[in-house]
Amino acid sequence: MMPAMAMFVASRLVHLSAVDVIIIAFYFVLVLGIGFYLRGRAQTGEDFFMAGREMTAWVAGLSFLSANLGALELMGWAAGAYQYGMLAVHWYWIGAIPAMLFLGIVMMPFYYISKTHSVPGYLKLRFGEASRTLSSVSFAFMTVLMSGINMYSMALVMKVVLGWDIHFSIWVSSLTVAVYVALGGLRSAIFNEVLQFILIWAGALLIPILGLIDAGGWSNLKLRIAQNASAEYTHAWATLGSFNGNPMGTHWTGIVFGLGFVLAFGYWTTDFLVVQRVLAAKDLRAAKMAPIIGAAFKLMVPLIVILPGLLALAVLPTRLMGETAAVASGGHSYNEVLPLMLARYCGPGLLGLGVTALIAGFMSGMAGNVSAFTTVWTYDIYRALINKNASDHHYVNMGRWCTVLGVLISVGTAYLVMSFASIMDYVQALFSFFIAPLFGTVILGMLWKRATSAGGFWGLLAGTLSSIAMWAWVKADPAALRYVALSPNARDMAENMYRGLWSWIVCVLVTVAVSYVTKPKPDSELNGLVYGVTAIPQEAEVALYRRPAFWAVVVAVIFVALNILFW
Amino acid sequence: MREGDISIWFFIGISLLVNGILILSAGLWEVFHPPANPVVLFSLHANVWWGAVLLLFGLIYCFQFAPRREL
Question: With a cut of 0.90, is the ipTM above it?
Fold first, then answer.
């Protein structure tokens, strides 16, 4: 690590005052303090890996959302809004809300009643050991790699924004996360994620408020965007009739079916990184409410991510550009849009809080990755395949060491990416290979009792391999894009959406075909795992306003209204 | 939570309270010692009222979820 004073270099986007540094330092003291305070509450496996299953709906719901507000999220989608306009909002609305509500109302009862500790754990109960091994190994591998990529992205941002040395950022943030997760387990990760969620809002909400005053209100903002870029930038759906009609090079079918259905449902309902938070809820009602509360806040996240990107189009005196052009010309890149807006409006103190919000976002994502990796490694790989009969105390110790190991592997990945930048593209593509087919396997497992163990395994494998094959096909022959993404004009994001859709279809078709030629499990073995043979507690006696379904409808109505409003 | 545990909302209250005090103080200092290169919309003194809002919420959360109350 570099000496502390060497972290400050000459080139930086913003300059911190003493009060800003105190605010950032206080944040680190507080998250470590929470970790030390909770260290005595993580003595059993249930405490360390599942937070004792005693989180309220609010805590689980905010943590569920916060774990997703990671390194690439805040900065990346603010930049996305600057580049693509309102189209970026689909990653927060149709790309999240229906899936989160579906998780809460339809899927959560099966995850919760089965008392599984992880998504691969559910696959073990439903489809057997082979499916669990396939999903747990791929998840563990990808999670630490993604964590490393996020870590590197964060360090890069801190270098550009604050001039901090890249090694200093990587080690300070990763060691802090390692300490508080290793000490307090999932409970510590969840507590800090809720704190980080509040700080993200406290630090970022001023930008849209002041930005709208600066731009002269929403109507004037639209006018200025139309002058500086294009009137199409303020529409979410109107430009999606053709691949050429919008800056993202995509089509409404890709957004609705690829992003809104397959990728969103795959991520929000089967990625253990987020589902783990909900499994820690104290009862079934809290577990069902948590994703709905998360969805309600997810509807509002565009205020602090997308709106700053749009405001930048209207109020910034200089045009931002791609990374390569920015390096060549000495200008600012799209990825700097959020720090530029912070620097524009935030004086001493507020700037420190804004930077703390960015750091908090990065650390909550990293902690989410590490705690999910630790649980899957310990329960679904180590206990299942290596050491089946150890004591609970042994597995908790394994979890603590695994947390440190997971962070170190992530740091190693960050340094690998630093040396070979193209790895980032490959790992992100790798991650997408598993998400869509996994959703196919889990949803058939939950809703179709005829699905067999062989069907589940071969469907998952076939879906994953087909996704890899499509990716390799386009890499080898770019002209294949017209088949995979239905248009030669499709861009990377559109290709990802359609590849996810096709791999999900392959997974479902293979699962159904293999299931029909293999023997199903008897109903008695599917109790608690599958719709139709599981007794789900009814809520007839509960007041309407306390029912998760009621709040899911409220969120769904607001979701539809917002899409129409910004059509 | 077990009896006697400190609520997460108390930690959040502490965070908002400390940040509120620091930001409000920095804002008030700037009111009386305006910077040479002020931020855009400096005249609104965002750090004064935003610091005050955080301070207020911090006080409410600290009081409401203080360990002696959240048993």
Answer: yes
